[in-house]
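Components:
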Amino acid sequence: MNKPITVFIILLFSLISTVSHGGDDGNLKLKENDKNGKYEVTDCFEKVNRGIFGFNQVLDKIIFKPLAKGYRMFPQPIRSGTSNALSNLSNVVTIPNNILQGQFKDAGVNSARFLVNSTLGIVGIFDVASYYGLNKRDKEDYGQTLGVWGAGEGCYFVLPVLGPTTVRDSIGSLVNIFGGDAWYNVTVVNDTKHFSERDYYASRLMSGIDFRAKNIESFDNLEKNSVDLYASVRSLYIQDRKRKIGNIDKTTETLSDDDWEELDSQ
Amino acid sequence: MKLIKFFLFFFIVLNLSNQSFSKDPSALINEIVDEAALILSSEDPVESKIIKLNAIAERSVDINGIGMYTLGKYRKSIDEEQKSKYQKLFRSYFLKSFSSRLVDYTNPRINVVSQKKINDKYTIVNSVLEATSKRPQVKIDWRIYTKNPDRPLIRDLIVEGLSLARTQKEEFNSIIQNNDGNINALFKTLEEFLIK
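Structure:
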């Protein structure tokens, strides 16, 4: 399995380095208002991206959506338990990123949550930590950390199966593979007696299905009411990442009033 | 004594009715959410529900304002005739997608949590769509245009931090941009959506 992964990484790196130089194939610049001024997110190779997006839509229809619907048929406690366990596992990426972003209090809370839920909560199935007042914090990843450190998004592009991303977020994902994800290390990198790489890929697949199952109606609604679904998904992805990187919870802090103010003055 | 009571009662009623002219943004959201919940949970046929939901939208949403916002930079380059055509198309598009988004919900429970005045023109109302067995709790914020305090109007819905107006704007801008800045391409797309 290591060889195909290496090939995939090299391919991904080639893609990123090509993409980061940008292209003229239907580039679209999305202007956004940042706290510190204006910045732009460029949709590199939009035509290719739209093609891959279409391919992903087909995959979703024939594989992921039916799996998500099947998963929905399980009783609520089973789904909650699965979701809790996967969320607990994600702490192994969130905690180092809390530290890298200087969120030491969150790192402490997440570490305590991980310890309590992994033991008393039986591998995270039960969220016992919340009962003790250790409330759930937002997930963090290496892409967000790069953003907090000031790295720009680079090009926006769509990956087969994995979906929308930017150069920065893809580099962030690669950090997981190069030692940044303890779960990846104990399953794929060091094939131990207790875990195998199958566990890792199963957990990734389950995370995807769990997310899809929680959003069946929202996706259906978006699909039904969009006049350009690709553009909608791109906008939502960029907005979501911006909000997560800013670690902003309040709407009043995330949205610039510039557009609306300009409208009122006309 | 009776006369004093009468005047006191009269004064209170008068005071209350004066207050009701200036509508609180949270009260607006509570009112429309309750009204929509009643419609959606009723046994009415879908067509009837859609008509009633659209009536709420016409009354409480600044459809023209959102329409112009979603045009982005292109609103400066269109002439009056195109503007008029766009506003008509956008109104129909908005109402169709608005009712279509809502009609699938049977009994959505939305609770207003707080509100924050940004400036004289805008107040953000924070609310929560309660979780069901199918989906988790969803945070919904409402951007209320309060330039006319007697008639506050909804201008945006921000679901889990994602602005629907901004998403719509980028969607429309993408269509126009990919057709060499030709706004007629957007008109055509909207017309196709309406006959779907």
